[in-house]
Every structure is written in structure tokens, then in C-alpha cells.
Amino acid sequence: MAFARPAGVGNRVVVDGTTATWRDLPELALPAAPVAVLVHSARYALAAARHHAVHGGELLLSTPGRVDAMMRDELRDAGFTVAELGADAVGVDTAGGVDTGGTAAPAGFRPVERDRLWLLTSGSTGRPKRVGHTLASLTTVRGEQPARTWLCPYAPGTYAWWQVVTLSLTQPGQDLVVVEPEQFDDWPALAAAHGVDAASGTPTFWRRALHRDPVGLARVPLRQLTLGGEPVDQAILDRLREVFPTARISWIYASSEVGAAVVVHDGRAGFPVEWLDRTTPGRPTLGVRDGELVITSPYHGAGLDGPIRTGDRAQLVGDRVLISGRLDSDEINVGGSKISASGVRDVLTAHPRVAWARVTGRRAPLLGHMVVAEVVLTAADPATAAPDEAGLVRWCADRLPEYAVPRRIRVLTEIPVKETLKSDV
Q1: Which of 70, 101, 295, 307 can bridge 258 by disulfide, Cβ–Cβ 3.0-4.6 Å?
Q2: What is the value of pTM for the model shown?
Q3: Mean pLDDT, to the nearest integer, of 109-123?
């Protein structure tokens, strides 16, 4: 059911440097039919979320950059009115609120699925898919929480965005500071200026901040750091612990399909082996089948009941279960020998001068594929000489089988990041 009076409506919301509350956001005049709202600014994204919480209806929320022409046609064929908000040419302020000036009518009409929220998957393994949720299924934090000011750097409409937004919208004392795309590289200054003490981001998001502005990052008074959306290795956890020795550092495994399924606070990569196949009412059940993480979750998307194969590789290492990457992209076949790209990546990021790495396979004569990598080095350290390609190859050769050693390592100057805050590692 819709939240007629969202409990967090009085919480502070900072968008583009302007402070307001949830109740101060623009009122929207959205179509009554199923609507896909493509927002050009965070303000309208939050306004759409509040509108849905109060009025219900059927909503898909995204940025225009994640919805290409083919997806727009797919949405119209599925009965959605496609509306854009926030750009000068399409978002029109009216006396009664904000009207959707730029709309595309659906190809046909169908009944509204009451209180339905649709999410688009990241599309990292193909075209994005629609996954159905409700505000209740996206609101996974329900117990009383300490007062926090949260940073939200995620693209509107993604699962991670909804996780932070529903926390602020439904829980008193959970303020929100939103990072617009043009503020992304300087977010530590924004966060420090507005008293952010809790932040959620992908490992790429955190690595980029550590690389670009470690001094500015350390000035943010963080008490809670959360990582998710990509494989979380020990190197990034340890580097964040060095900067924030007293903060709680958590990592979360979550997806549009299964919701928030794994939450770990002990500072270690992976989760305890004893969590496997443990059945607890109201909590996800975790399993590993043929090296793949399988989850049965109470927070799953519509129509996805029962055990769901996630497509992510899960490995039992000692007393931990490590989630290392996608099964369909993590394995590289070099002359018949199988190599884990994530394993090679972990060796590279363990180097004290490597801030980020991406490992892939490249077609090669005779072998079929060879291992190649891209890296970004940390800032200059007088005590540690910057490695060249040959030095990084030697580092890997000392720690990996010969066939797994990267044959080409390209050094980049900046950590690449997509709108989803991922770098497809």
C-alpha cells in the first residue's frame, strides 16, 4: 500500500546545494496511467518518489541516459506513458505544480498495477530488464536508526538509489544530500559542507574518491560507509579503514531481482560460511550451487519467488564465501587453462601503488585468449617507486601461474566510471 504520510517527510534534503525538506519538493502532475518518468535532475526524481509514496499508482523512474530509443519503444508497447522532467524543454512549472511537458503516449492502454514500482537492471550483461517492486519491498530498513545525514550519489531509479531514498523518506532523522552528476568529482567537499556522516557507494565510487582527493575524503566526518553493486575485495575495505579507523564499514550484496540479501559489518571481504543454507523467517536464504550464488529472498522482485540463480561467482575460501564477479565474464580460457579475471584483479589491487584494475581476455593466436589488464596508480609516494608495465607483470608473475599473468598492462590516468557508478570490473 502507499505511504499516505511518509514518516520522513520532514527530513532535510539537500539538492544542488539547496536545503529543503521532503515536503518542500515540487508537486508533480503525473499521468494516471502507468508512467515512466525520465528525470534530468535529482530534485524531480525525489519529487516523483514522494508522489508515488503518497498517491501510489504505477511508476518507472530513470534518467534519460539509461533509456535509449529502443527502450522507450518497449515501454510504450508495455503501456507506459513516457514523460521527461527537469530539462528546460520538457519540465514545465505550472501554478498547480509541475506538469510533464514532454510526454510520449503509450501504444495501448491497460489497467494500472496499483502501487507498482518498476526498476531497470544495470544491463551489464545485456539489455536492461524491468523488475517489479513496491515501495514496501524496497524499504528494507525498518527498525529505529541513529540520526544520520546520508550521501546519495546513485543514478535516480536504480535499486541502490531507492535503498537510500526509502530510508530517508520512511525513517525520521535520516537526512539526504544528493550528488548531481556535475558534482561527482568533488563530492567530498559537498559532503563535508553539509555534515554528511553516512555514505553509500560502489567500490569504484570509493576507489575514485581515494585516488582523486584522499585528503578531502578524510575531512568528511563519516561514521557509516557502505559498499555494494560490485565485488568488494579486502584491499578496498582495508584502504577505507586506514582513512576512517572508527567508522562502521559495511558491504551489501543487493540486486533489483533479489533485493538486499547480504549485509556484512566485520570489515572482511565475503560472508561467513555458516550463513549458507541458514533459514531464518524474514531473511534471505543463501546458497552456492555449482560455484554460483543462489538466493531465496523476501525482498525479491515480482514473479521471482523461490531460489534465484544470481549469475555471480561464489567461492568458499577458508571460513568465508567470496563473491568475485559475473560467471559469464569472470572466466578466461588461456590455451585450455581456466583463469578467474577477478583473481588476477585482486593480485593487481594488492600492489601498494595500484588504486584500481580491470582484467579481461583478449583473443590471441594459438592460445585462444591472453590475459590483459588496465590499472590506475595511486598518487606519487616518495617511499614507493611507481611501477611500470614490466614491474607490474613481475608482481603478477611472483603470485600467479604463468598462464594467468597479464601479457599487456595499460596504465590509465583516471578510474573510469559509468552512470551506475560501476566500471564493469
Answers
A1: 295
A2: 0.89
A3: 87
